[in-house]
Amino acid sequence: MTISKANGVRLAALLAICGAVAGLSAAVEAAPITQKEALAACRAQFGKKVVNATVGKNGKINCQWMVRREMTRQEAYETCRKKFSATTAMVQKTKTGWRCRYIGRF
Fold first, then answer.
1. Is the distance from CB of 83 to CB of 94 less than 8 angstroms?
2. What is residue 68's predicted lDDT score, i.e. its pLDDT?
3. Where exactly are the structural domains of the chain?
4. Out of 3, 56, 61, 102, which could bridge 89 as a Cys pair, Cβ 3.0 to 4.6 Å?
């Protein structure tokens, strides 16, 4: 074998090895998306009204959102009375919602 043929064989072997390594690295998949990352992506796209985000088997993110209306005073009172079996209930509006104070049944 001459020097040029030997170099050609080495070059072909080197290219084959590089191709195999490149093929293996392309087959490596990215890490799956976590629940926290999916929720952050949905909130970035749709805002604060997003309540849940699910990741499908194919990697697609499904966002679920809900528009909540605020409770009326009467609804807050009835909820407080039923929840605590109260004889007397008082509700007070706060900046985060309603506060319930009650006297229970004896």
1. no
2. 72
3. 1-30, 32-68, 73-104
4. 102
